[in-house]
Design brief:
This protein is α/β, with parallel strands linked by helices. It has a domain of 132 residues: P-loop containing nucleotide triphosphate hydrolases (Rossmann fold, 3-Layer(aba) Sandwich), CATH 3.40.50.300. The chain is 20% helix and 24% strand. The chain contains five helices and twelve strands. Strand 6, helix 3 and strand 7 form a beta-alpha-beta unit. The N and C termini lie far apart (40 Å).
């Protein structure tokens, strides 16, 4: 169960992870909006590396958005947090290892800290520092997407452009959600066309 309300005498860390297109940022925004509706002081951060939609908002693929600070590194979070009771951080995998100690410090100061990010890179490796955050968080949510090849639950990010950089910010032009079976890190071939409505996925896989 996810926490609600203002921290009373203690803070905590919530982590929302999953593959691309699993709704991580949408869930982050939902929790932050609820805190705003409760008149809690909220501040939101995104990494300077991610400028896909706007420079001053965290945006989800579904079009939801919330105003944010753009920061170069975790150290800026401490300076800009001010008296916020709830702190949201998007794309946590881009912040580097110091994010863990910064989140711990903010939680120890009595803040509610919510971090969203990828738990695996395109090769299926744990995407630091998200695994370390999962280890120290009080609340953990793992979202699943829908495999774009077969329709099964998806927890992998399939890169569909031939680039070997670990940090590659992209949308549907660069990634697809895939299940364990359909994911192939050595292939960059995208799904060409979605299955038509009414197609039996089991029959298609035969």
């Amino acid at each position: 169960m996810n926490p609600v309300g203002v921290p009373q005498g203690t803070g905590w860390i919530e982590v929302v992870v999953g593959c691309m297109f699993s709704g991580k940022t949408e869930e982050l925004i939902r929790r932050l909006r609820r805190a705003q509706f409760a008149r809690q002081r909220v501040v939101v951060f995104k990494p300077a590396l991610d400028r896909r939609y706007s420079a001053d908002h965290v945006d989800s693929h579904s079009g939801q958005k919330i105003a944010s600070f753009v920061v170069e590194g975790p150290g800026e979070l401490l300076r800009l947090a001010g008296d916020a009771q709830v702190i949201g951080i998007d794309e946590g995998q881009f912040f580097g290892p110091d994010l863990v100690s910064v989140c711990e410090q903010l939680a120890n100061d009595g803040r509610r800290v919510i971090v969203a990010g990828l738990d695996q890179d395109y090769l299926g490796r744990p995407f630091d520092p998200m695994p370390q955050l999962l280890a120290v968080a009080e609340y953990i949510t793992k979202n699943l997407a829908i495999c774009m090849r077969c329709g099964n639950p998806a927890d992998r990010s399939q890169r569909v452009v031939n680039r070997d950089a670990r940090f590659l910010v992209g949308e549907t032009d660069a990634y697809e959600a895939r299940c364990r079976r359909c994911w192939n890190p050595s292939s960059f071939e995208p799904v060409q066309e979605p299955l038509p409505l009414g197609v039996n996925l089991a029959e298609e896989r035969r």
